[in-house]
Structure formats: C-alpha cells, structure tokens
Amino acid sequence: MPQINRGFSRCGDVFVKLTHYRPYPLLCGKRASGLKCHPVSKTQSRPVMRKSILRCLSLLAFAFALAVAQDQDFSKVQMKVTKVAGNVYMIQGAGGNIGASVGDDGIVIVDDQYAPLADKIQAALKGITDKPVRFIINTHFHPDHTGGNAYFQKQAPIIAQDNVRKRLESGGGGGNGGSIHIDTNPAPHEALPILTFDHDVTVHLNGEDIRALYFPAGHTDGDSIIFFPHSNVVHMGDDFVTYGFPFIDVESGGSINGMIDAVAQVISQLPPDVRVIPGHGPVSTLDDMRAYLVMLKGTRDAVQQALKEGKTLDQMKQAKLLEPWKKYDGDFVTEDVFLETLYNSLTGQKTGKLIKHN
Predict the structure, then answer these.
(1) Once rounded to an integer, what is the mean pLDDT over residues 228-241?
(2) Does 314 fall in a domain?
(3) Which contiguous run of DSSP H or E holds residue 144?
(4) Would you say residue 2 lies in a domain?
(5) What is the domain range of residue 324?
(6) Residue 238 falls within a domain, yes or no?
(7) Residue 119: its pLDDT value, please?
(8) Does residue 265 have a pLDDT over 50?
(9) Full-prediction pTM beyond 0.90?
(10) Cα 228 from Cα 90, distance rounded (Å)
C-alpha cells in the first residue's frame, strides 16, 4: 500500500489520518487539514429532542428503508458472522458484506446493508463484543451497502468518499447503460456521511491503521477499498465480487477500465496470504482476485476487438461473444447483460430501461 505522509487530527480519543483535503471544522469545532466535515442537522446536534421530531425522523428512516427494499422480505434473513483474520470479522445477511474491525477501542464497520436489517446487524455485533461502534465507512453509495446509515449514524460518524455523499444526497439514476436501470430517491439527511474525503483517509483504532483508499470509475465513481494491514485483510467493496460477472454502474460513473485498474493495483500491493472480503460472496484469496482480473481483461479485450471490427452490440450477442466465460453467467448479471455493460462502458452508450424504486 502506498505510504502517504500527512497530518493527523483527533476525533474523540481516536486519531484520524487526513490527506489531500482543504481544512474543515470537525464536529467539536476544531479545524483539521483534509477531512471534510459536513454540517449535522439541528436534530442531530441538540442533546435533547422533542418527541415529535424523533417520530418524524423515524418515519423518514423507515420510508427510506422501504424505498430501497420495497419488494424484499427481510424477516427471515439470518446474519452470519465469520472471523476473517486478526481482529477483522465479516457479517453476511442480505446486501453487501459488512467488514468489522473489533478491539478494545471499539468497532469500525465497513458498509451496513439494508435499513430493515439494522437491528440484526447490531445484534450480530453484540455477539462479538460489547464495545460501541466508533466509525462506519461506506465503500460506495448503493443502498445494499448504505441502507443502515441513518440507524448507525445515531451511534457514530459515517466516513465516505466525496461522491458517495453527493449521490446519496441527490438521488437519481444508475445502471449498466443497457437493460439495468435503477432510479432512487435522495437519501434523508441523517443517512448522509458527515465525514468525506477526496483520495484517502486512515482511522487509527484497535492497533490497526484502517485505510480507505479511493479508486475512481470502477464499480461507481465513489469506490473506496478498505485496507486492514495489521490483520492482513482487505475489503474490496463491489470492485470484486464472487457471484459471477460484476455489476458495473456505468450510469453512476463506473467503467470496466476503472474496475480493472482498481483490482490490478490492489493485487500488486497485497501479500500472497491476504484475506479478501468481497462486496458479495465468501471470504476469498489473492488467487481468486487474480482469476477475476483475468476474466475482466479477457472480456474487455474481446469486446474492444469486436468494436474495432465494426460489430454492433446485437451482432456480438448473436455471436455469443462471451461464451468462453460462461461460468461467470449469473442470475443478476447474465452474459448478455455484461456484454451490454462492456459495450456501453467502452462506447459511452446509455440505453437503459427504467426500473422504478420510489
């Protein structure tokens, strides 16, 4: 991992490493070089809140949960906790994998799945330790990774790359530029990360230097990959998944070339025995990531060559261009869907059909 020497700022009794940013006031009113601290709402900053305001905020959080998970039944979801390595755990339920650094200083969690699962996530954490949650880091803005933000930000601040906050705040469309398009409403204020960064930030907690490093234009335009060097663990977010062909959110700034660059750079920096938390799927190895990278490059190159030959997207589909990688064909991202993704990423085409999420 690249070593970057910058200043430090105290946030409570935890030191946060700040890099590449302008000074912004911390919640305590002190100034820090780098980490952007966004204003909290009056309801967040007042120590005493009226019951009517609390009820209003609860309804907003509940409405947000329904918006991002309108047709899903979470009542039967069981949380599975896996010890990954060192002091890092992985929690699986529905949505993206949660990483958790657990120690005497408290808990840092990476992503928080869907809002209706927040109580179950909290219970899973309680099964590991009675220590409090100290920070939450979002790997990107998708609701299966940020749906619990409003719940957990009542306990601790959320950290994310600048574009995560912007996309959560504005809402809008996302998709692969083809047959997948999802329209989402803006997130409520209490679900927005209050600490954002441009390039990277490091949280020093539990004897660990937990680094969130920005990789632009991969899965989205706000991806962070999270390194736990002392525990020898990395959380890849959705730049690496094990369910098959990945979903690349072309309409939210993602790209095949950005994803390839991110995965290749991370592989080059990691030791051979690293434990990998994917955005979705079981704990993986560096060899798993290498195989995934070979697939990304091979499929990208096949489509790029077909484009040079003047072939259309329909012609590529008819020729079953991605047949050599059919083992990656999945229920969510099929061969044809991934072919659309590659084609649209390499050409800039966007012809998505709307899937409305109110």
Answers:
(1) 98
(2) yes
(3) helix 143-146
(4) no
(5) 7-356
(6) yes
(7) 98
(8) yes
(9) no
(10) 13
